[in-house]
Each structure stands twice: as C-alpha cells, then as structure tokens.
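Tokens as discussed.
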C-alpha cells in the first residue's frame, strides 16, 4: 500500500515537472517534433534511398501542396508497382534488391537473390524453440525479442563492414516472415486452443506467398490474396529517412551499435499507434462506424457523426479520424490510391463491395469534415493515408489483426536495413546528437535535515 502511494505521489510530479509551455518553442526557435512551422520536416540528413514528396515551392518560394509522390532510388513507386503488375508477376523481392543496391536487378540477379532469401528463411531449431517459449498476443514484442536473440546465432554480430551488413540485412528480410508466422501460430495454439501448425517455407514461393502459406496452410488463399499482399509489401518497404522508425534505426546505427539492437529499436518505434500501429486503429474505428451508422449511404448521417468525432464527442473522443491525414502527404497518398484500386478487385472476389463502398464514402466525407473543421488553410489539407485501406485488405485476405503491424515491419525491414547501411557508410560516421534547450528553473541544494 505504501509503495502504491509513493508511485502515485511520484507520478503526480510529472504534471508540473514535465510541463513545457508551447510559447517557449517559438521563443527559442525550437522545431517541435523536428517539424517546421509550415509542417514540413526539418532537414537533418542526406539520403539516396527514398523520397517522400507532398509539397513543392512556387515561383515565390512558398510551399504548395501537390499530389503525393513516393520514390524508391529515383523510381516512382507507382511506376514500379504498375510496371511489375503489368508483367503479371510479383515484385517485393525486386523492390528489396532495388532499395538495398540502388538499381533494378536483371533476371539472373533476381533469381540468385531469391535463392539467397529462401536459403535464409528457415529458422534454426533453437530459434524456433525460443519462439515457442515467447507466448503472447503482441507479435511485435516477440519479433523484437527474436531479433535480439539472432545476435547470439550470428558468428560475426558486431562487424559493420559492408559485406557483413548486407549479409545480416538479407538474413533479417528473409526471417521476418517466418518469425511472425510462427509467433502467431504459437499464440493461436496457446490462447485459442487451436492445433499447432509449424509450416516450413517453400523454395518455389515468393515471400508474400510463403507468408500466407505459413500462416494459413495450402489451398487457403487465392492468387489475388498473394498479389495484393505483395503490393502491400512493396508500398510499405520504404518511406524516407525521416519516418519515426527509420530515423530510430539511423540514430541507433550512428552509435555503431550492432544490427540486431538497431533493428529491435526500429520495431519498438513502429509498434506505436501513431506509426505502424495505426492500421489497427483504423480497423477498430470502422468496426465501430459500421455499427453506429444506420444507413451506410446517408451522407448527412455520416457527416454528422464524423463531425462529432472531430469535436471529441464520439467514438474514443480523441478528436481523430484514423487513416485520415499524413505528416507529408496532403492532396493524396500514392500508396492509398494504388491500394484502393486493388481493394476493389478484392471486394469483388470476397463479396465485400458494400463494405468497401462505405469505406470510400467515409474517406470522402472525412476529408470534407476535416477541411470544414480546420478551415481552408492549405497546410491543413488532408487525404487518406495507406493505413485507411490496409486493415480492410488484410481482413479480406483472412489475416488476423495481431499480424497487421508485424506485416508493416516485415516490409519496412528493407528500408531500415538500407538506411542503416547508408548511415554507416556515407554519413560521415558522426553520432546523431541533436540539442535540447533546457528551460527548467534553477534550484539550490537543501540539506536533508532541512527539507
């Protein structure tokens, strides 16, 4: 009881000791969240890997919002995705090769790359047994702990030579699907009383299909399921060095820590509901909306409820409409546009056309409601982000919510590894160490017997 009181008493001090007036940020010219006044990101580094574009400067040098662009190594991700689909094949492995190396592979290079990844996919027996001991519903935590354990199986874990970094990167990219699938199947067995199925990767399958095979078993997924999951992996593979988890990887890498510690830190960052965990929030929000909105086609009813949400008077009273808005994209998120097109195909195959039509109407009305709520300031313009439709797609494929965010990590590990290698080999080998302005009040030491 006394311990509980002390914890409460100490926690109450946070109200005052951690409070900083917003005006002080302006007074000292501090960029909150490393964001400029116009909401653009503060430049903190240089990169050749990915580019996230939501604004451009007009003739007067003022930033104006434009349709969003995502670029991988100089190639527009829309061109990449549509080009691969136009050849009726899968492309996540090719995307990984591009991001890691800087160029597109030829047929022979891609074949060898696939063979290397497959050879790395199986887990050592001891690693599998360790996952068996890590029971729990939070697959992200199990993934992080499994990554840290990979350090113990690595014959050269601390070397930051280019060859060693690439070897570790390929091993991580290959093993993430296996770890996630095993961890979920073990959770389902222990918590839900289901039979335990540990299916080993198949050398003739892509990473996308291998994941569905290990999760669901043979004949329990369609060609379209594989195709759209492959697209999801392509779209989530990289998003510039400034996104929270990639920046975390670059910061930790700058200290020359080992690859596994750095990647585990990235996983911890991605887990947050304001980052990779947002897709789960969108999914939960739509389950709520489908229940409280009586007529899924009634614009007035939808507008009224969304306005209540923005006014913190409905749903979870956070004032947020999940899946709407992005730190960089304003007019449109190219990932969401691509995903929505394929979601329409999936809705037809799965008989979910009414649900998707409702989502599309909510998207339209949510953007309108937000603009009316915030006013016409161009910097407040918003669009649906990739999370808006990702939960719908995952559910349609038949994947459980427990793996939604781990799937994000399964893709983004490619970007993390690419940025880690760039940080350690290009960025001058300086530890990232920004400054904070101390605005605390001065105090004098008082002897213990006089306090």
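Sequence:
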């Amino acid at each position: 009881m006394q311990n509980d009181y002390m914890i409460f008493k100490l926690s109450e001090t946070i109200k005052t000791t951690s409070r900083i007036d917003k005006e002080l940020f302006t007074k000292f010219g501090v960029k909150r969240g490393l964001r400029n006044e116009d909401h653009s990101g503060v430049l903190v580094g240089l990169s050749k890997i990915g580019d996230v574009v939501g604004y451009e400067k007009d003739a007067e040098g003022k930033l104006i919002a434009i349709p969003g662009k995502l670029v991988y190594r100089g190639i527009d991700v829309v061109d990449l995705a549509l080009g691969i689909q136009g050849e009726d094949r899968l492309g996540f492995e090719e995307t990984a090769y591009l991001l890691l190396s800087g160029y597109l592979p030829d047929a022979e290079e891609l074949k060898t790359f696939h063979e290397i990844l497959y050879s790395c996919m199986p887990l050592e027996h001891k690693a599998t047994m360790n996952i068996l001991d890590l029971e729990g519903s939070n697959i992200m935590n199990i993934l992080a702990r499994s990554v840290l354990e990979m350090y113990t199986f690595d014959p050269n874990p601390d070397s930051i030579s280019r060859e060693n970094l690439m070897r570790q990167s390929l091993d991580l990219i290959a093993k993430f699907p296996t770890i996630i699938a095993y961890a979920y199947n073990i959770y389902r067995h222990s918590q839900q009383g289901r039979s335990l199925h540990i299916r080993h990767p198949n050398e003739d399958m892509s990473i996308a299909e291998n994941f569905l095979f290990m999760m669901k078993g043979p004949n329990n997924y369609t060609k379209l399921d594989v195709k759209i999951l492959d697209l999801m992996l392509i779209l989530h593979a990289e998003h510039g060095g400034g996104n929270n988890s990639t920046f975390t990887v670059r910061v930790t890498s700058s200290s020359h820590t080992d690859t596994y510690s750095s990647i585990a830190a990235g996983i911890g960052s991605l887990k947050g509901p304001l980052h990779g965990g947002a897709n789960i929030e969108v999914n939960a929000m739509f389950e709520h909306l489908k229940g409280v909105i009586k007529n899924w086609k009634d614009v007035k009813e939808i507008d009224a409820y969304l306005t209540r949400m923005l006014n913190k008077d409905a749903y979870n009273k956070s004032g947020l409409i999940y899946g709407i808005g992005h730190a960089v994209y304003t007019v449109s998120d190219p990932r969401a546009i691509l995903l929505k097109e394929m979601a329409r195909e999936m809705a037809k195959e799965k008989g979910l056309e009414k649900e998707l039509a409702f989502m599309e109407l909510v998207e339209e009305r949510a953007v309108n409601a937000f603009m009316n709520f915030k006013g016409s300031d161009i910097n407040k313009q918003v669009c649906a982000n990739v999370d808006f439709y990702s939960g719908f797609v995952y559910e349609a494929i038949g994947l459980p919510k427990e793996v939604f965010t781990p799937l994000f990590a399964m893709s983004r590990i490619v970007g993390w590894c690419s940025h880690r290698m760039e940080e350690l080999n290009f960025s001058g080998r300086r530890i990232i160490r920004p400054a904070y302005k101390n605005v605390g009040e001065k105090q004098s030491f008082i002897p213990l017997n006089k306090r």
